């Protein structure tokens, strides 16, 4: 009798955990949610599936890495989200051209750029965009974001299932947010193609600083032929994961 009760309790706990993960955007491998078992970054997430329908935070170590971060986010949208909706990019000024992002898998006509000078208005526009189920993804550049503001953004996607990407400056002490993950992306020297002169396929150092119910890590990632490649072993030298928050 005791064994049966324990088994029932275990089943209930497993079911509750699955429900919690589903609400947080972590899906099980069914239908269109097949895990990318060969992708090291995907393995960092529960079920080996990148969480959609949630908000993700990207911190900039320098302004030079803005385009790198934008390119990496675009590759996530094109290769992992499997969405055909419009991509709303919100910021105080337009720093990227849609045509510059086309090599990373998203046609220019899918981007809708919104310029908002006031930071308070910018967060409001971001929240409204995230509430729209017809939007495939929202990328928002913010200067600062409190936990309360991040919580509002997370609540906005719970019904729409739109995925949000928040880009913000890296600081010595970042406040906690309600975002499911926190990333940092920086540029690495590209590799030449067949020893020819010029710029090769881009290579990035991708740091997953924090992820809910997952495993942080750091990888050297190359984007080529519309997919991620890992030309070198993970660059973990002197890497210190950020504290959870």
Run of helices and strands: HEHEHEHEHEEEEE
Net shape: globular
Largest sheet geometry: 9 strands, mixed
- Provide the helix percentage: 25-40%
Q: What would CATH call the class?
A: Alpha Beta
What is the total domain count? Answer: 1
Look at the helices and sheets and give the structural class.
alpha/beta
Unreliably modeled segments: 1-6, 28-37, 233-245
Mean pLDDT: 81
**Number of discrete helical segments:** 5
Using the CA coordinates, give the radius of gyration: 19 Å
User: Biggest sheet, strands in spatial order?
Assistant: 3-2-4-5-1-6-7-8-9
CATH-assigned fold name: Rossmann fold
Sheet-strand content, in percent, reads: 15-25%
Count the strands?
Answer: 9
Distance between the termini: 43 Å
- Relevant CATH superfamily: P-loop containing nucleotide triphosphate hydrolases
Topology (elements, then pairings):
Layout: H1 2-23, E1 55-60, H2 66-81, E2 86-91, H3 98-101, E3 111-115, H4 119-130, E4 135-141, H5 147-160, E5 163-169, E6 181-188, E7 203-211, E8 217-224, E9 227-229
Parallel strand pairs: 1-5, 1-6, 2-3, 2-4, 4-5
Antiparallel strand pairs: 6-7, 7-8, 8-9
Question: If you had to describe this structure to a student in words, what would you say it looks like?
Answer:
- The chain is built from five helices and nine strands.
- Mean pLDDT is 81; it is low at 1-6, 28-37 and 233-245.
- The protein has helices at residues 2-23, 66-81, 98-101, 119-130, 147-160, and strands spanning 55-60, 86-91, 111-115, 135-141, 163-169, 181-188, 203-211, 217-224, 227-229.
- Strand 4 (135-141), helix 5 (147-160) and strand 5 (163-169) form a beta-alpha-beta unit.
- Helix 4 (119-130) runs parallel beside helix 5.
- With 245 residues, the protein is an alpha/beta fold.
- The protein has one domain (51-229): P-loop containing nucleotide triphosphate hydrolases (Rossmann fold, 3-Layer(aba) Sandwich).
